From TrEMBL:
SUPFAM superfamilies: Acid proteases, Saposin. InterPro entries: Aspartic_peptidase_A1, Aspartic_peptidase_AS, PEPTIDASE_A1, Peptidase_aspartic_dom_sf, SapB_1, SapB_2, Saposin-like, SaposinB_dom. Residues 1-294 form the Peptidase A1 domain. Residues 104-144, 167-208 form the Saposin B-type domain. The keyword Disulfide bond applies. The keyword Cell inner membrane does not apply. GO terms for biological process: lipid metabolic process; proteolysis. This is Phytepsin.
Length: 297
């Protein structure tokens, strides 16, 4: 279209209508934007990787509390082909716990807390770097940029050995527990409270590739969540990040957050799908290699 001179600008823009009763479900405009579908001005951030229109996202907040995971920046993409919001399992677990979503109970996670919780805490307090803690306990060993579980027969009963999958699950659970503990340590929480909190988070770990269910009656009491993009806060209310299917007593409410771990070097990576794009009108500016967001109208 650009080469043929059919569009005025090298941009395309999305408006997604979240009202299921509306006649028009949304609009994609090639070569510009429709001013009827947004309020105020767009705020822009540069594309950091061309392949997926990737950009740098800053801190992520639940309520007014930082989760600490993206303080140093996280890669993110905006994708109309993804229905929900996906992020690393570690952070999605914290979100689902905060909003009361019911994920799959992870035996491995609880095992880590009961068997190794105090040792994890002591190592962090003593100054061991978070990415070295699980390796020091023999739960993971370093293989290039990734941590891989070691042979941990002392944790997993030989006769009921879960094999490599189980060992990797314990390594992953340990690494998640360290992230959660480090975040609480930064907030100057006491050890007993932190171990109790981490154990609760274990219960909220989402099923891999699956959604987490929530009590529809709890929506008014849930916290807002905030994405920081280009130094600007982008807030989603519970009504915006919870998907409601059906009405009345048969209604089912689904958390808009789903775990998806994109491995390095491409990951970790957030995908801001339709849940985000329904709230924020999005401009893909190909000419200037940037993304723009404004409140949808």
């Amino acid at each position: 279209m650009v080469d043929q001179g059919l569009v005025d600008e090298e941009v395309f823009s999305f408006w997604l209508n979240r009202d299921p009763e509306a006649e028009v479900g949304g609009e994609i405009v090639f070569g510009g934007v429709d001013p009827k579908h947004y309020k105020g001005d767009h705020s822009y951030v540069p594309v950091t990787k061309k392949g997926y229109w990737q950009f740098e996202m800053g801190d992520f907040l639940v309520g007014d509390q930082s989760t600490g995971f993206c303080e140093g920046g996280c890669g993110a993409i905006v994708d109309s082909g993804t229905s929900l919001l996906t992020g690393p399992t570690t952070i999605v677990t914290q979100i689902n716990h905060a909003i009361g979503a019911e994920g799959a109970v992870s035996a491995e996670c609880k095992e880590i807390v009961s068997e190794y919780g105090e040792m994890l805490w002591d190592l962090l307090v003593s100054g061991v770097q978070p990415d070295q803690v699980c390796a020091q306990l023999g739960l993971c060993f370093s293989n290039g940029a990734q941590s891989v579980s070691s042979n941990i027969e002392m944790v997993v009963d030989k006769e009921n050995a879960k094999g490599r999958v189980g060992e990797n699950a314990l390594c992953t659970a340990c690494e998640m527990a360290v992230v959660w503990m480090k975040n609480q340590l930064n907030n100057e929480q006491v050890k007993e409270k932190v171990l109790e909190y981490v154990n609760q988070l274990c219960e909220s770990i989402p099923s891999p590739g699956g959604e987490s269910i929530i009590d529809c009656n709890a929506i008014p009491n849930m916290p807002n969540v905030t994405f920081t993009i280009g130094g600007k806060p982008y807030v989603l209310t519970p009504e915006q990040y919870i998907l409601k299917v059906g009405e009345g007593p048969v209604a089912i409410c689904i958390s808009g957050f789903m775990a998806l771990d994109v491995p390095p070097p491409k990951g970790p990576l957030w995908i801001l799908g339709d849940v985000f794009m329904g709230v924020y009108h999005t401009v893909f500016d190909s000419g200037n290699l940037r993304l723009g967001f404004a409140e949808a109208a």
